Amino acid sequence: xxxxxxxxxxxxxxxxxxxxxxxxxxxxxxxxxxxxxxxxxxxxxxxxxxxxxxxxxxxxxxxxxxxxxxxxxxxxxxxxxxxxxxxxxxxxxxxxxxxxxxxxxxxxxxxxxxxxxxxxxxxxxxxxxxxxxxxxxxxxxxxxxxxxxxxxxxxxxxxxxxxxxxxxxxxxxxxxxxxxxxxxxxxxxxxxxxxxxxxxxxxxxxxxxxxxxxxxxxxxxxxxxxxxxxxxxxxxxxxxxxxxxxxxxxxxxxxxxxxxxxxxxxxxxxxxxxxxxxxxxxxxxx
Length: 286
Description:
Residues 1-37 have low confidence and may be disordered. The protein has nine helices and 14 strands. It has 286 residues and is α+β, with helices and mostly antiparallel strands. It has two domains: 41-126 and 234-274, D-Maltodextrin-Binding Protein, domain 2 (3-Layer(aba) Sandwich); 129-223, D-Maltodextrin-Binding Protein, domain 2 (3-Layer(aba) Sandwich).
């Protein structure tokens, strides 16, 4: 009798153990299925890695203010995985157009035609438009550069500024030599230094950084007074596709940017890459 009871008790214990294991497997499978359903979306950002200190390549990896801001933003968005892809500048914009890239991070300025085709983030930094010229050249405005030559990229914001200036000043035009998007900014500055061209219109922060890095001691950087009263002048942004995904990204990224501005992350990155606080106010134009 005692043996029979022991057999029954052993059977009950074994049955309970099997049930617990089955429950564990069921719970594990449920968790696994939930993870599969909770998919992480890869978001590809395009950059030319040729606009130091906003974006550049170091040890074969893209870095710089814009890139590190993007990484800081997407650390706060676990539903996405950020992938950074380096390409030439013209392909940055074209790739966003085609949907190959979901957004661009490349010291991109605002202009009306772009706003019709793309969504812009909240502004990331504020600098000045400036020209790099030989140290003996006197310049305050674009009119002082009438008849002088430069090299420009077809889709760059600075090209648009110069083209509009030429349209408004047909008797005081500057000479625009169009070049391929793969031609580095440092090479264009070297062309100013050698006398091949007379000036380069670009972002003041980038010009100063590259001139210092390349030891182009005979060049100086002069801020150029804006030809317009556009409140977007000097501001730079992320650029998103103008579709449902782009709008969703814009909304989420802007929310995180506001948080990173409030907690000092943007200021810290600005001081690291720019050498000062160039973070615009929270109510800067978008």
